[in-house]
Amino acid sequence: MIDGICTLGNDNVYDQIVALLNSIEVHAGKSFPVCIYPYDDRLDKLRQLAASRPHLHLFEEKAIIERWDQWVHQIWSHHPTAAEKWLAINGKSGIHRMGTHRRFCAFEGPFDRFIYMDADTLLLSSPETIFKALDYVDWVTYDFQYKNLSHVFDLSSPKLKSLFSEKALEMKTFCSGFYGAKLGAVAQDDIEWYLQRLAQGEAEVLYPMAPDQTILNYFVLRRPIESANLAIALSREERTGNSVTSTHFEERDNVVFDGDLRLLYLHYIGISSKLIARLCEGENLDIPYRNTFLHYRYLHAPQQRPSFEGPLVSTEPTKPSLGRRILRKLSS
Q1: CB contact set of 120 (below 8 Å; sequence gap of 6+)
Q2: How many Cβ atoms sit within 10 Å of the Cβ of residue 252?
Q3: Among 126, 139, 217, 252, which has the minimal tally of Cβ within 10 Å of its Cβ?
Q4: Are strands 56-58 and 34-38 parallel, antiparallel or unpaired?
Q5: Are 283 and 211 in a shared domain?
Q6: Mean pLDDT, the chain, integer
Q7: Do residue 225 and residue 274 come from a single domain?
C-alpha cells in the first residue's frame, strides 16, 4: 500500500509549493512521496522542481485530467444559476476557478491512500494521525468549516435539508484545503450516480463560488462516504486550530503551537500568492506566522532568504472583508 501527499498548483504558487514540500520532507520524511496536480498549463518551474526531487511527481496523465474536466463540466451544467453568476463576476463565460477541480484526479492515483493539502498549507507534524484514521473510515478531515455552511452549500436551496440531515451538515462538512481519502473513494460509477441526481434538481444545493469544495462535500454527504472530522472527534484537550486567521498560535522552533499542542498543519488561507511573492522578493509584509513560512520556503537555500528593511507593512485591509471575518469566526 502506497501512502502519499498531494497538492494542486502552477508556477504562480511556486513559493508556496516549495515551502509545502520542504515541510513534508521535515515532518513526513525525505522519501515521502508527493504528487502535484496541475491547476493549468503554467508548469515550467514545477517541472524543473519535480526533476530535482526523486520523490516528487507532477501528474500529467492527460486522459485522467480530461475525463475529470469533462465530468466537472457535466456537474455544473445542471446548476440553475452558476453560469450566470460566474459571467457577472468574471466577465466571461466558463467555470469559476476551473483548475481547482483538478484535485479530483487523486481518486485515480498514484496513491492508495492520500492526504490532499492546498499549496498554501504547511505540514507541521507527522501525517500518521490522518493515515491511522483512514484505517477506520474512507474520508478524514480536520477543520472547523462546519461552523459556517455558507461556503459549502447554497443555504437558500429548499432541497438542502431534504437531502442532508442537520446532523450530517453539522458533523460532516469540511474545507477542501485539507483532507485524507482513499484511491477510488469516488469512481466512475459513483460519478454517473451523482450526475443522475444532480440532473434531477439536486445541483441547486451546490455553492458556485467555492466550486471544488461544494462538489467534494456533496460527494461525501450524498453517497454517503464514511467520514470523520478530527476537529469534532478529538477531545478539546487533543485538537488544535489550523488557520492563520487564529491570532493566538505561537511559533516555536520552526513549528506552530496552539497552547501546548503542535499543529498538524497550518493553512495560510486568505493570503494571496501575490502577497507571498512580494514577501519572497523582500518586501517587509506583515503576514501571519511568516517566520514559519520563510523557514520552510528557504530550508535548502537559507542564503536566499530575504533580509527585510524598513517598517513592517500591514497586509490587513482597513475594513476586513466578509471572507476574512468569516475565517476569524471559524478560527475562534
Answers
A1: 13, 16, 177, 267, 268, 269, 271, 273, 276
A2: 10
A3: 252
A4: parallel
A5: no
A6: 95
A7: no
